[in-house]
Each structure stands twice: as structure tokens, then as C-alpha cells.
Write a structure and sequence with these properties.
Length: about 190
């Protein structure tokens, strides 16, 4: 199922965004659909230079990465934390060709989607990260109707997602490592 199919008629999207904004979302999704991440996929599947992922795992990871980018578009003021799998795709997208990554971000967001990896995280920051990761998991469920974790590990890498626009306040959303049981804890807690 395409992301556009998931969003059309989505009561959450209709309620939260509604009206002409829905068309902006559809336009963004079309841009996202046309984003050429084939070189990223090839790098990820490489045993020598990438992760050695299978084609199926790579396709799933890239689809989740695109969903993550859509969440950034939909919720630019909310801290989002990628899973380790999504973060691997994000790192590869950035490092494979930084110029292309910048162009892709400009085309999608009109600005650069920054990625920051903090060297150290204190206790308060870790708590914020856990909350942001929980929010991200819940948004995947609410917006797309799917769990982001699926068969992958419930872990994220050490990174920070910065607001898209420079005038927005910095909201720390660093990634963290979480136990596999976290999704059950979030939904039952």
C-alpha cells in the first residue's frame, strides 16, 4: 500500500490538518514517492561498504525512512527519534552524497533536515529522548496504522533531530537504545 493510500481518508490526517493543508500533504507525499533512494539502497545492501542488508529489508527500511520524513513534514515542531534501522538509512542518505541529500531536503522541506549526534547524554536528556521515541512510535501507529518496529530491533542510534526551519526552537530529540519490550510498555502504560 502506498503512503498516499494510507493518508487519503485517514481520519487523523483529516481531523488534524483538514482542508487545503491535506493537499499540501499529498503534494509532499508525491515528492517523497519520487525521491530516488536507489543509490542509498544499493549502498545499504553492499556487504563491503554498507550493512549487507537483503533487498527486502532494505526496501522496508527505506519505506520506513520515507514515513519518518513525512512525520517531520507533518509535525515540524515535535521531536522525533528514528529507530536504529531508520537512522541507518538516514546516515547513508546523508553520507553517500551530501550535495544530493541537501537537494533532496530542499525539494521536500524547503530547508535542510539536520541530524546531530550528541557525544554525551545526561539523565534528563535521556528521559527526553525516551519520551520523544515514544511519541515517534505512537505517531507511526496513528498516522500510518503500522508499527515502525515490526521485525527489527527496538533500538535507536545516538542522534539528534533538529527542527527543519532555523527560526524554530531547538528541541532535543536524541536517539537512544531501548529494550525490545518498550512498545508493549508504551501502549499498556
Amino acid at each position: 500500500m502506498l503512503i498516499t493510500d494510507m493518508l487519503l481518508g485517514n481520519k487523523y490526517i483529516d481531523f488534524y490538518f483538514g482542508g487545503s493543508t491535506t493537499m499540501n500533504v499529498i503534494t509532499f507525499v508525491e515528492k517523497l514517492h519520487n525521491l530516488d533512494l536507489q543509490p542509498v539502497g544499493q549502498k545499504l545492501m553492499s556487504n563491503e561498504q554498507g550493512t549487507g542488508w537483503t533487498e527486502e529489508k532494505t526496501q522496508v527500511a527505506i519505506a520506513r525512512y520515507k514515513m519518518f520524513l513525512l512525520l517531520h513534514f507533518l509535525f515540524p515542531h515535535i521531536s522525533l527519534v528514528p529507530t536504529q534501522e531508520i537512522d541507518e538509512v538516514w546516515h547513508t542518505h546523508i553520507l553517500l552524497n551530501t550535495r544530493q541529500y541537501f537537494q533532496d531536503c530542499q525539494h521536500l522541506f524547503g530547508d535542510i533536515l539536520h541530524h546531530y549526534s550528541p557525544a554525551e547524554v545526561d539523565k534528563a536528556e535521556r528521559q527526553h529522548q525516551e519520551t520523544a521515541f515514544s511519541v515517534t512510535l505512537n505517531l507511526f501507529e496513528e498516522v500510518f496504522g503500522v508499527g515502525v518496529l515490526g521485525d527489527t530491533q527496538a533500538q535507536t542510534a545516538a542522534c539528534l533531530s533538529l527542527p527543519i526551519a532555523p527560526h524554530q526552537p531547538l528541541i532535543n530529540a536524541a536517539c537512544l537504545t531501548l529494550p525490545k519490550q518498550l512498545p508493549q510498555l508504551i501502549t499498556t502504560g
